[in-house]
Structures are given as structure tokens and as C-alpha cells.
């Protein structure tokens, strides 16, 4: 009884305290700025998501949604719809993208014109992202008949996705006047991931924002195949004031849809947002050049924009694009003297822009670094005569001198080198004792292009060598800046001649051309040793040339597919396993394998069955009579 009395006294006191606390909390919320209230609740939501508490996050989202409906705060209501996906991922059993898209489509009716357009665009982007990440699966799906809403999107074909994407993007652009009259500011929470300071200038209204978003879709889909034979492409290059008046027709292809969007955007900017006019105009030219591939015309228009907008900070962005176009034009036409000075032009453009717009210096750093990048390579015959100077061609760019060293390797050392990882090889060679080293000065060039010169490397005794070369006066050879090449110094060479089913080799003296008899010839192949789990060199046959320098080999020696991927090959052969793996899975991994075999009929069925292209040469009647050739007519 005593204990019961205490409980009866304590409980009313606790209830009174709770009521008092709750009353103070409500008073605080009423006095709180609505914006602060939303920010506080969103922070709580983010914390729950971060701590993997989806049900708690969902409850907070419900509260925000109720408040947004009560306040008629459409941007906040839109945000709750978009963020609902984060919760559904964890709370919906067997969640798939279908679940969220169905939910989002159902929510469209709750939104007013502009947020509804925003959600349409988001749904279109979800479809587009799904196609991008499942492109192989989508490409294999068959066409869908009937109501798409009753079919899971994992079964949709490409056409079905395109229809839905185009529909939602079209709906997103319908309320043009409402978009023009709606500032982007209330929606910054939804687009802040990529909406930096400059985008506040380029997209101050939802009209510009939506045009760019939908335009990106048509930019990606547009191709040169969209261009009609009789279309006047000169209209696409017109200055802004004339372009907005041009008749671009009503063609529904992505190319023309994108051009008409640029036309609407540029016309709007001309009267309402002149600060963004330059940006949209040069983006229009960028799109047109991507289709027509007319770099000279493109560069003329960019130069005109720079001349007409001197002092506009956005000219820095135009200059970067202009410089990159010059660089790409030269690199695609390295042998055309008309573009030899493109690197120099690009460099001068960047330097002049930095002087005019010093705040943009960092933006030019990558382009200037690419122009000034040093490259060096050395080319010479991989077989050289002993005790004679070695002529080498040096291909260089932005290099005034280079250091080289030559090291000698024995055959066991060469085998050890072959087993090393690529990043270990330069270090291994650099530690070897050098047989020659020098610092070579080469002709200085100032146009930033690749040039060539001839240098003489020192005479060497017979043996196997490596040459290491790096730009400048480097003390140590490092992986990223070192060119390495293997070569052999010997008096021996060979001439190959194929006759019937045999290969004839003649060993000769490389300088005189006379036959060399008594030369040991090894036929070897790199094979995998399962015991030591390494590749090793296996000698298949050892022969000695006769007094006339002749060695005769069977033509089938070293034939890969008929030997290692034949129908009779051991099933546990590691080489066969690798070949089967490549032919069966290579397409999905983006890997291609080429093979040349003497007898197609002897190749493993899983290899020939997975080949997409077959090329045939001359073969004998016995081989041609097999079932592998049954699709050929008897007479042709």
C-alpha cells in the first residue's frame, strides 16, 4: 500500500512535467523561422540516413511533407517526393526502380506547374540513367506490346525507354511562361550539387535550368545521320541575332529539337539575361561543330565571340574551348602543315586570356600543361651489328636534352626481367651496371610540336641490351618519364621462305648476306607452368643450320588454335581455359580476340561458335569437305 501511494503521487508530477516541457517546445516551434524549421528537420533526416535508420528517416520525411502541405511550400513538397527514394530503397521489400517511379508519377498531381515540370524531368533522367547503366540488358530485350505500366522496366526495350524519356521531357517544357517567371533560388536545395556561382548567372530562372536539362538529352542523341540532305547548315553558324530568326523547320529528330531549344534560349537571353548570352551562344557552336565536324568554321565563330565580348569574364571559358579545339585539330592532322602552328596559337591564346582575366589562371593550367608536356621516344632497328655506330631516331617534344644509358643483360637476367611487373622493370634495369651513358643536346624547337633528329649511339659487342632514356639531366630513371627498349647486337640474321607445308629458314651474316652454317636455332614458346604457377619459356625444337645455312621447319609449329584450342586438347589445359573464357565472356567485357589457324575444323567448338567474324583463305579439298564449311555452295 505504501508503494502504491508513492506511485500515485509520482505519476501526476511526471505528467505535469511532461506537459510543461511539451508546451515550451511548441512555443519554440511557433516562434521559429519556417526556413530554419525545415533546415533543422532536413538535418535530422540526413543524420538518420547516415546512421542507416530508414524508418526514423521516413518518419521525419512524413513530418516535413505534412508541414509543406500545410504551408503550401511547393519546393519543399517536391523535395520530400525526390528524397522519398532514399527511404524506399531500405523500407520497400524487393525494391526496384519501378517502385519509386510509380510513386513519383502518382505524386505529379499534387504539384503545381513548375515543380511538376521539375519532377517530370527527374523521372526522365531516372529512365535515362537506367538505360546507361543497363545498356547491354536493354539492347537484348524484345519490343514491348501493350501497357508499359504493367511491365517491369527490366524487360523494356530501348524504344520503350526513349518514348517515356521523351514524353516526360516534353511535359517538363510545356509550362514555358511559368518557368520563365519562376526564379531558381527556391529550388537550389535540389540542384546545389552542381549549381555553383556561375550557374546563378547562367540559370537565374527555371526556364534556363529546364532548357539546359532537356537540351542535354537531345545533345546526346543527336547525330550526323539526323541531317537532312537538302538542309541549309549555314543557318546553324549564324550570329545570335540572326540565328534566332532562322527557320529551322519542324523536324522531330533530336538534332533539330536541340537547335530549336538553343534558338529559344538565346532569344530569351537576348532580352532578359544578357549575362548568359555568350555562354549559351558558344555552347550552341560547340554542339553544331560536334555534328558537322568543321573545326575551321567553329574556330572562326569562337574568335568572333571573343572579339565582340572583350572584357566579359566568360571569354576565359570560350578561350579554353578554343585552345582545346586547336590542339585536337593538330593532333588529328599531325602531318598537315596547315596546323603545325596550332599548339603555338593555343598557347598564346591562353597567355593573353590570363593577362586579361587573371582570376581565371587556374582554369588554364591543365591546357597549358598539356601544351608544354615533354615527350621522348627512341626508335632504331632491334638487331644491330657489333662494333659499329648505332643510328637512332629521337622523337621529342618540348625537350632540349636527354640522358640515356645502355645496360647489358645475360639470358638468365633477361628471364628474370620478363617475370617482373612493369613498374619494377625500370628500377631493375637502372640498378644494372651501365656499358654506355651520355647527356645529349638536341635541336631546340619553340612550336610545342613533336620533332625528330638522328643521333649515333656507341659501338657495342654482341649481346642483349636495353636502352633507357629520359628527358632532361635525370640522375635516376623513373617509370613515368623513362623510355626503355630492348635490342640485340649480333652478326646473325635469317631469311624465311614458306613452301608447301614447310618453312625454310636461311641463317645469314647480317653485314655480308652470306649464308652461315652450323648456327643453332631454337624454336620456343611461352607456356604456363601449373606447378610453379608462372609462365616460362619452353623450347619446342632445337635445330642446326646446314653448311648452306638452311633449316627446315614443319609449318604447324607454333600454330596456336589448332594446338592449344583444338577439339582434342586436354580439358584442364590452362591455355584452353583462357581462350574459352575470352571467346565466351569477352564481348560483355569489351575484349576482342583475333586468331589465325590452319584448320578451322580442328578448333574447339566453343571457340569457333562464339566467333562473330570468320575470314577464309585457300584450303585443301579434305578440309573444305567438313561440316564447318557446309554453308558454302558446292560450286562458286
N-to-C span: 113 Å
How many distinct beta strands? Answer: 13
What best-fitting shape do the alpha-carbon axes yield?
extended
Q: Which parts are unreliable, with pLDDT below 50 for 5 consecutive residues or more?
A: 1-32
What is the percentage of strand-forming residues? 15-25%
Mean pLDDT: 84
Structural class: alpha+beta
User: Total number of helical segments?
Assistant: 25
Biggest sheet strand order reads 2-8-7-4-5
The major sheet is characterized as:
5 strands, mixed
What's the Cα radius of gyration?
36 Å
Q: Give the helix proportion (percent range).
A: 40-55%
Structural overview:
The chain contains 25 helices and 13 strands. Helices cover 49% and strands 15% of the residues. The radius of gyration is 36 Å and the shape is extended. Strands 2-8-7-4-5 form a 5-stranded mixed beta sheet. The chain has a 3-stranded antiparallel beta sheet with strand order 1-3-6, with no helix packed on it. A hairpin with a 2-residue loop joins β9 and β10. By secondary structure, it is an alpha+beta fold. Residues 1-32 have low confidence and may be disordered. It has helices spanning 2-31, 34-50, 54-71, 74-91, 97-107, 113-133, 135-140, 158-173, 176-180, 188-191, 197-202, 206-221, 240-243, 254-272, 277-292, 295-308, 315-331, 342-356, 361-372, 411-419, 422-431, 560-564, 574-589, 605-608, 621-624, and strands at residues 375-379, 383-384, 390-397, 401-409, 434-441, 451-457, 463-471, 483-489, 492-499, 502-509, 520-529, 534-544, 550-554.
Amino acid at each position: 500500500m505504501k508503494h502504491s501511494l508513492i506511485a500515485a503521487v509520482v505519476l501526476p508530477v511526471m505528467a505535469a512535467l511532461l506537459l510543461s516541457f511539451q508546451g515550451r517546445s511548441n512555443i519554440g516551434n511557433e516562434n521559429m523561422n519556417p526556413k530554419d524549421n525545415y533546415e533543422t528537420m532536413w538535418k535530422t533526416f540526413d543524420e538518420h540516413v547516415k546512421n542507416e535508420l530508414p524508418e526514423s528517416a521516413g518518419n521525419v520525411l512524413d513530418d516535413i511533407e505534412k508541414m509543406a502541405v500545410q504551408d503550401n511550400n511547393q519546393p519543399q513538397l517536391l523535395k520530400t517526393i525526390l528524397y522519398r527514394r532514399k527511404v524506399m530503397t531500405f523500407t520497400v521489400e524487393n525494391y526496384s526502380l519501378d517502385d519509386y517511379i510509380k510513386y513519383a508519377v502518382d505524386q505529379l498531381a499534387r504539384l503545381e506547374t513548375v515543380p511538376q515540370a521539375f519532377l517530370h524531368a527527374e523521372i526522365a533522367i531516372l529512365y535515362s540513367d537506367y538505360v546507361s547503366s543497363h545498356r547491354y540488358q536493354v539492347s537484348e530485350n524484345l519490343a514491348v506490346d501493350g501497357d508499359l505500366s504493367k511491365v517491369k522496366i527490366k524487360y523494356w526495350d530501348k524504344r520503350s525507354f526513349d518514348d517515356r524519356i521523351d514524353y516526360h521531357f516534353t511535359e517538363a517544357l510545356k509550362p514555358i511562361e511559368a518557368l520563365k517567371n519562376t526564379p531558381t533560388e527556391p529550388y537550389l536545395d535540389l540542384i546545389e550539387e552542381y549549381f555553383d556561382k556561375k550557374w546563378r548567372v547562367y540559370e537565374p530562372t527555371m526556364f534556363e535550368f529546364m532548357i539546359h536539362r532537356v537540351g542535354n538529352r537531345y545533345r546526346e542523341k543527336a547525330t550526323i545521320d539526323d541531317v537532312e540532305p537538302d538542309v541549309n547548315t549555314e543557318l546553324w553558324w549564324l550570329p545570335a541575332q540572326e540565328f534566332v530568326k532562322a527557320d529551322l523547320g519542324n523536324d522531330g529528330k533530336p538534332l533539330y529539337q536541340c537547335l530549336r531549344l538553343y534558338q529559344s534560349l538565346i532569344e530569351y537571353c537576348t532580352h532578359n539575361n544578357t549575362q548568359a548570352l555568350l555562354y549559351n551562344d558558344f555552347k550552341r557552336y560547340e554542339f553544331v561543330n560536334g555534328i558537322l565536324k568543321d573545326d575551321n568554321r567553329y574556330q572562326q565563330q569562337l574568335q568572333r565571340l571573343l572579339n565582340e565580348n572583350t572584357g566579359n569574364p566568360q571569354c576565359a571559358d570560350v578561350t579554353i574551348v578554343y585552345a582545346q579545339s586547336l590542339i585536337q585539330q593538330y593532333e588529328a592532322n599531325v602531318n598537315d602543315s596547315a596546323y603545325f602552328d596550332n599548339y603555338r596559337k593555343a598557347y598564346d591564346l591562353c597567355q593573353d586570356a590570363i593577362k586579361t582575366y587573371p582570376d581565371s589562371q587556374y582554369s588554364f593550367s591543365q591546357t597549358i600543361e598539356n601544351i608544354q608536356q615533354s615527350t621522348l621516344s627512341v626508335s632504331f632497328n632491334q638487331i644491330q651489328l657489333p662494333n659499329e655506330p648505332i643510328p637512332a631516331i629521337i622523337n621529342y617534344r618540348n625537350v632540349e636534352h636527354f640522358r640515356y644509358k645502355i645496360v647489358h643483360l645475360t639470358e638468365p637476367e633477361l628471364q628474370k626481367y620478363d617475370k617482373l611487373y612493369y613498374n619494377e622493370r625500370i628500377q631493375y634495369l637502372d640498378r644494372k651496371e651501365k656499358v654506355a651513358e651520355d647527356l645529349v643536346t638536341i635541336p631546340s624547337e619553340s612550336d610545342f610540336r613533336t620533332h625528330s633528329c638522328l643521333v649515333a649511339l656507341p659501338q657495342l659487342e654482341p649481346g642483349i641490351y636495353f636502352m633507357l632514356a629520359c628527358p632532361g639531366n635525370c640522375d635516376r630513371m623513373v617509370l613515368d618519364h623513362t623510355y626503355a627498349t630492348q635490342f640485340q647486337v649480333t652478326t646473325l640474321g635469317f631469311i624465311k621462305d614458306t613452301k608447301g607445308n614447310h618453312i625454310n629458314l636461311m641463317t645469314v651474316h647480317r653485314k655480308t648476306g652470306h649464308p652461315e652454317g652450323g648456327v643453332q636455332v631454337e624454336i620456343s614458346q611461352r607456356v604456363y607452368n601449373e606447378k610453379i604457377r608462372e609462365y616460362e619459356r619452353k623450347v619446342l625444337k632445337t635445330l642446326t643450320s646446314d653448311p648452306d645455312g638452311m633449316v627446315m621447319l614443319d609449318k604447324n609449329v607454333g600454330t596456336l588454335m589448332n594446338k592449344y584450342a583444338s577439339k582434342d586438347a586436354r580439358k584442364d589445359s590452362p591455355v584452353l581455359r583462357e581462350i574459352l573464357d575470352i571467346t565466351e565472356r569477352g564481348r560483355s567485357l569489351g575484349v576482342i580476340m583475333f586468331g589465325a589457324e590452319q584448320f578451322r575444323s580442328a578448333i574447339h567448338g566453343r571457340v569457333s561458335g562464339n566467333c562473330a567474324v570468320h575470314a577464309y583463305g585457300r584450303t585443301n579439298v579434305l578440309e573444305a569437305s567438313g561440316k564447318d564449311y557446309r554453308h558454302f555452295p558446292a560450286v562458286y
